[in-house]
């Protein structure tokens, strides 16, 4: 059993729909689902006023499945706090996708907005397109970003990916903006493409692996070694990598791995390596 | 609207009424003995507790430091929001609620009068603007005067009467209610990143000691006949071993009391009752303090009870807040105010697992239970420093029930549980004593004659709680009381029903109390004073005072001074 | 004509502050904000003098303002346009999730356009928002 | 002629309160003690002002009565699903209080100009906190004053004279003497007199004999002024020490300084083109002062790195407190932008970018901030108070505002009011109407009314209250 849902029209103002989660839908009848409350701007609406909703024979190993088709770019908080089941979205997802998610699986065949998986604690989000800023980040003022689970982005991400991250794994196969792993306190971030710099700024713990090019490195990182490969989650990624620690301005012990082959301009750092450390 | 509150169990300690079943009559916003009009609403309070509206002697609800705390903590607000209704404004809550939410939440607990204890005089307009947006409750605010340059200079030169006249002007200019001292002398020293060590350590560049400041302002308070005593946040607050400083502070004004009248209030005493040498060797000093208070009538104190939660600490004690930041690594706001005071803000979480926090929790309750006279120990959490004010019902639960305390104790840090004195204390507050510690005693200490009682002529500020003391035993069924005190069945403010079944049903504006001193020698601001003023502050003398237009409902309290 | 790659800064100037008080439709205002302060060495490179119209182009648009020699020390490669409708044709509107566009340090290309005119405010608004854009 | 003393200047965040205004025939004829900008405001305000409210009909703005304009405004706001209410930093706190109530009533987004000014600073303060103070504290105590990415001579012309280096304090004397000595060693009678014209309204004599003294680098006993900026600003010209950084590299420089003040060594020889030795000198200067202050301007918040530049600056100053007393303060632009943050915060918990569309305050700049909403084209109506977003926003954002119904309350004619559908010419707060404003250091001051406004120009507060009443009337039937 599952639910198919698609927008009835293009929305011009934000639509808040925290109710679109397998947790909520799986306990309700279709007619109850149709009458769930959502907000379109400042107007209260019923789900059925904005969306076509029907039941369908969708199943997945994760359990109750919501199949979403269409442009949900204005629809915020899809999968908010979900703990089980699956959401498959063919189209564009709005901001705060999977925020505070605890379990289950969200798959997006398209782009997603900013704050994907922010403060998530478990589960898995996979986006085949691009995402915005603050992926896996914390809410304003809070030091508790993503604590567990996995976010996988096949496209690009923008700024401050993994801000205040404390655990879990973020993989971006494309490129990222500035300040990846800002204030990071734990967990792992892997970037397949290039970055706009300032990676690992003010991080204290955790691991950032960059396979592509970085424009420069913050002066507050120290080179430690050159490593042939590095572990990302369960997977081993082949290098070689320059391994830096920082951010020393925060007395940090974060590890920043940057591909050696794609960053010939970082060769100058090798002179700071004591011979013992070159392996 | 006239009211007849019928058949409630009335607790009115000022009039010696202890749970008697009786009717209370209200007309014209006052308690009356007979209703003039034939039309009145009847509230059936049978099986319920009727008390005067709650009075809070110390709660940071408005002004620059509270607002800086709000700004600092979006993550605190986002988890606790209030929706707009037909009659109430929306807002956010938890440890530093927005102004409207503050007013509603106090009213929902049956509180009708709240004192904001910390106001930098230079930013007094700000405090009053916020108080205007804090609905329902009556309020007042204490200007910070213990590090004010004029005070330091007058007291250094021994000019008590001049100082008194100046303080009188200051209360007028800031629309203040009482003299507040925070770490006297220490905040001036903090201007250069320093502090004072004890009450005899002179203030850098001013050649005056905290002892002289405390004694001086205590004398000033007496000369001016202010309704409340000096309100003191001690030196060395929050440091192990500071209970000795607290004892010295209380002792240093012993000779200034006359008769049984208190002359000093030590606020959030829990933070000033630490024994030991560091955070490892850290113990409760509550017993020593309680012993002193039990034998000396010139002191009143309030608890500053710790609640195990995530809260926001904020005080004018800049150096203490810096230490707290160093200790926790949490984000830190500091705001020094020229010529007057400082302040600091650090988010803080009290954890049951922590030995120190557990001991702190014990200290507050030990103070409340070891001090025998409930008229001199009041229930506070130093909102939001030791916990938000919305936890008062929980504290009441701990006071009325040993079982409630044991339940919390069982979850505390083991070492704390084993070393603390609290588990051996059997005392349980009666509801009569609760009424003293939460309203009557506080109103008396504040000199608010119309508050804290249900005698004829008093303000018709009344709280009705739906719990039957004849059927439900506080000691064992404390939960019922915690629930009832959290959501008043009725809150009546100036004769109007503002809360029903824990929901706000009517919004009105509370009054702002301030002290208007009339003196023999009319206080005039000399040209010399204006010149010094221009040198000391970056605002012009004319732009400094708060006009009465800043008070939505101004309630001056006239006092006749000796100077 | 030569072109120059520069960083564009926008900000307050005392002239703009004063002129604003004479009204935003005044010539004084236009003179104070439809202007690009350029380092003398850069002006030399471009071969222009004060008051030559220059076109400032970024990824986000382009605008014609008059050149003015900067008297603020030496800062080759950095040009300055005071806040105003002209500067805002070319600043970077991306906020990266914080609400704040980039008003300073935007990469730009500078190019003298001696024949062109600096637009009047009405003209600028019309061209930005469409002829009689209001219903 | 009437003389009014201690008037507060409603121009910049310095909120100078020692202005003397002379009024004749309900017109300001002379002012004393102001800077050039304040003078321009008092003597020239309202030159192009409209006499009556305007409503757009058939594409053109036509005069209308206040009642009509109020009704039209209320209709626009009640019909809107996602209106924005923007501006608020050049009006009184009393008006802002009503504005917040209106925003809540119509379920809109309310945002103030700090969103494009010190919004990033606020975000960083929410992450790391801020050690700060009121300005008098600096006057009395600061022996090291740093302006980073801000140019007070242009944006806050009397700041240095009233509050920092050139003011006389209890424990610190004015730095004029060293300044004069230094300047006289160089050239510069002409430049001196120009600076004097700008900031020096007080009498100051330049003793001839001192002109002969040699120039020197940093004075031992007097306050020191350090300027860090991407170009040599007017302020930099009077500084004891000027450090020029490349555009978009402030973050690296600040982080490097943090390492140095924490006694850690930098591996590299230079940071963003600045030799590490230079940074070490600056770090030593910071550590060895008794009381330092770092003022930062939009130079940090508007360039690459934005909030994180401020994050690094705040952290630097926080770290310095382990070694000495050091504080930091943002240089706020508009005269009441601080007040807007303050009032927003006490009523809603959040300083700007507050979204009421769900019936309670929500805050998430980037999502609920005006520029983003406009860029995404999400709003369907706007109300602008005392601000000019059509001039000040990137053109692509301003377009959404212009394309939807727009209400403007502003005493001035601005590009925004020219593109509006309803325009209320209002009274100038601080000249024609009273009200509270907050100085950049959070000190509240009561702005004065020195002349009467024209008959159809009400104060903002009154106009907003009327719109709010009308909105409630429409809603309740």
Provide key terms for this protein.
A: 279 residues; mainly beta; 14-stranded mixed sheet; 18 strands; 5% helix; D: 477 residues; alpha/beta; Rossmann fold; Dimethylsulfoxide Reductase, domain 2; nine-stranded mixed sheet; five-stranded parallel sheet; 20 helices
What is the topological layout?
The complex is a heterotetramer of chains A (279), B (563), C (135) and D (477).
Chain A: E1 2-7, E2 15-16, H1 22-25, H2 30-34, E3 37-40, E4 43-46, H3 47-50, E5 51-56, E6 59-60, E7 63-72, E8 75-76, E9 86-93, E10 105-109, E11 124-127, E12 150-153, E13 169-172, E14 185-191, E15 205-210, E16 222-232, E17 235-246, E18 254-259
Parallel strand pairs in A: 1-7, 2-8, 7-9, 9-10, 10-11, 11-12, 12-13, 13-14, 14-15, 15-18
Antiparallel strand pairs in A: 1-5, 2-3, 3-4, 6-7, 16-17, 17-18
Chain B: E1 2-12, E2 17-27, E3 30-32, E4 40-44, E5 49-52, E6 54-56, H1 64-72, H2 74-77, E7 81-82, E8 91-92, H3 99-108, E9 111-119, H4 124-132, E10 138-143, H5 149-156, H6 160-174, E11 180-182, H7 186-190, H8 210-224, E12 230-233, H9 243-251, E13 264-266, E14 274-276, E15 282-284, H10 286-295, E16 299-302, E17 310-315, H11 318-328, E18 332-336, E19 344-349, H12 355-370, E20 377-378, H13 392-400, H14 402-409, H15 414-419, H16 431-446, E21 462-465, H17 478-486, E22 490-493, E23 496-500, E24 503-504, E25 512-518, H18 527-536, E26 554-560
Parallel strand pairs in B: 1-4, 1-5, 6-9, 9-10, 10-25, 11-12, 12-13, 13-16, 16-20, 25-26
Antiparallel strand pairs in B: 1-2, 2-3, 5-21, 7-8, 14-15, 17-19, 18-19, 21-22, 22-23, 23-24
Chain C: E1 4-11, H1 14-20, H2 27-33, E2 35-38, H3 40-46, E3 53-58, E4 61-69, E5 78-82, E6 104-112, H4 121-129
Parallel strand pairs in C: 1-5, 2-4
Antiparallel strand pairs in C: 1-6, 3-4, 3-6
